[in-house]
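Why do we bother with holo predictions? Because pocket geometry can differ from the apo form. Keep that in mind while you read this record for iron/sulfur cluster.
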Amino acid sequence: MKHFYPDYVQQFRCIAAACPDSCCQGWDVVIDEETEAAYTKVKGAFGERLRQAVITDSDGDRVFRLAEAKKCPFWGADRLCEIYKTLGEDHLCRTCALFPRLTMDYTVFTEHTLALACPEAARLILASDNALAAFDDTECDACEAYDAETMRLLLRARRRAAAILTAEQPLSERLDALTRFAREVQATLTGFTEEIEEDSILELYKTMDYIDEHNRARFIRAAEKPPGNPKDEKGLTKLALYWLYRYFLTAIDGLDLLSPVRFLTASVRLVSRLAAEDGDLTKAAQLYSKEIEQSYENMALFGLS
Ligand code: SF4
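The structure, written out:
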């Protein structure tokens, strides 16, 4: 198995109490079976607190009952994790131990990345130049999980897509060129293709789930704004490449290339408009990812769950 790492994965360290928007707030924390079993052995008042905190949610997952403002009940006033401080790192559930590290496992090779929803990951992703050079060498050997020739076609198409996204052209033209290219590749994959309607995609933001309802109005306002000229095309190009490498190869399952490209182009356009409000692209990208990309339901609207 070959592993490919962009440089920001190696550089990542959680900044814990210094984090401006901790992953300990806003989300359900799913507790895996092994961790819950370990909690049954923790003695004393802290063990009792742990066991009392785990409930079953409406999806049937075992999760921590969140405190006010959707905070993890073990997120202390010092903004540090009480479980980590009291019991050590090996008592963290899998969700917390891994976040924001992500692996895209394609059976014969694995690509690693970070979730943009983590502020420190977002900072590193946008600070890094040529972060994805390692992925250029990605190749595919034969395997039983999928047709290796189709994966090779997708890998070649991804390299071409990366070249389109980094061409010397205004960003909007590059995104349009990527859409046209994706439609061609889709036709090669399945013998048919379809239009990607950007306007109808922007309508999607009205129907999405939001952790913070204030963000619904903010996202709709951004979606309804006329395009304008983005200020930080270099940063937006990095985001486009980040989403290209994160989602393009998902087309190996179901042969749907238009969904990841639709998500990429819509996301770059929306983040660009969000960032135009205060000029902070990193914050806009992190917020977008936390609200949209980390939501199973929202990603399903893009055909990507
Ligand atoms: S969001 Fe990232 S930096 Fe912040 S606490 Fe979580 S892992 Fe650490």
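Residues 258-278 form the longest helix (21 residues).
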